[in-house]
Amino acid sequence: DIVLTQAPLSVSVTPGESASISCRSSKSLLSSKGITSLYWYLQKPGKSPQLLIYRMSNLASGVPDRFSGSGSETDFTLKISKVETEDVGVYYCAQFLEYPWTFGGGTKLELK
Amino acid sequence: QVKLQQSGAELVKPGASVKLSCKTSGYTFSTSYMSWFKQIPGQSIEWIGMIYAGDGGTDYNQKFKGKATLTVDTSSSTAYMDLSSLTTEDSAVYFCANSRYWGQGVMVTVSS
Q1: Which of A5, A24, A29, A99 is deepest in the core (most CB within 10 A)?
Q2: What is the per-residue burial (b if ≥16 Cβ within 10 Å, else e) of B50-73?
Q3: For residue A23, with 0-12 CB atoms within 10 Å meaning exposed, 13-18 middle and 19 or more buried, which class applies?
Q4: According to the model, what pLDDT value does residue A47 have?
Q5: Vertex B52 angle, CA B10 and B29, to 5°
Q6: Neighbouring-strand partners of residue A69
Q7: Nearest 5°: CA angle at A76, between A13 and A106?
Q8: How large is the average pLDDT for residues A70-78?
Q9: B104: pLDDT confidence band, cut at 50, 70 and 90?
């Protein structure tokens, strides 16, 4: 199975500041079609996950452009610029390249 | 708008089975895929499997083969997941999700 390792486990950010979350894959997530199948989700407290970024760097509809995704074949970054109170929760990366689909362990974002 | 409405919380005895439902609206269910996920509170997310509503074809995480069975009823735009031979390790929140949206989740508690 593809293992996704997220860092840090938690991050504390002052509102208005930026935050970055890392996700490292045990295998390249670049498909033969040239698509990098890495996704980012935010799970707010007591809620279901919501899609933020798809295929490594594409912003899902309705998601503020404060969120951005980047990376290579195995190393990925989610950046949140100007963090707001509504950004609090646990962030997960996920790979949908091959079965079984897998998720990272999560990064908890809190406000200072 | 797209909605995935899951059935209510379940309390079941060890060894029993339970059938969870996910009623959809706002998109064309009959030609879509539906995935199911498991999340133990405080932990990350596991992919259980996926079903194509068009022909009922399924793909499962090997870990959940024999545990979960996915079906659909296209006449009611509803997806189902049967969980069998339940143990305390199956106590978790279960989510359905299409390619973009997630249900609200349903808590399954296995206890005598």
Answers
A1: A29
A2: bbbbeeeeeebbeebeebbbbebe
A3: buried
A4: 97
A5: 80
A6: A78
A7: 55
A8: 97
A9: very high
Cα–Cα nearest to B50, from B98, B83, B107, B84 = B98
- Give tens-digit pLDDT for B45-68: 999 999 999 999 999 999 999 999
* Cβ atoms of B33 and B98 closer than 8 Å: yes
Q: Could you report the per-residue pLDDT of B74-97, keeping only the tens digit for each?
A: 999 999 999 999 999 999 999 999
Sheet holding A4-7, edge to edge: A4-7, A19-25, A75-80, A67-71
- Touching B: A residues 55-84, CB under 8 Å: 60
Q: How many CB atoms lie within 10 A of CB A88?
A: 16
**A99 chain-B contacts, CB cut-off 8 A:** 59, 61
Mean pLDDT of the region A88-92: 98
- Search chain B and give the residue with CA nearest A90: B44
The sign of the dihedral angle between the CA atoms of B24, B51, A93, A31 is negative
Report the distance separating Cα A51 and Cα A78, nearest Å. 12
pLDDT beyond 90 at B99: no
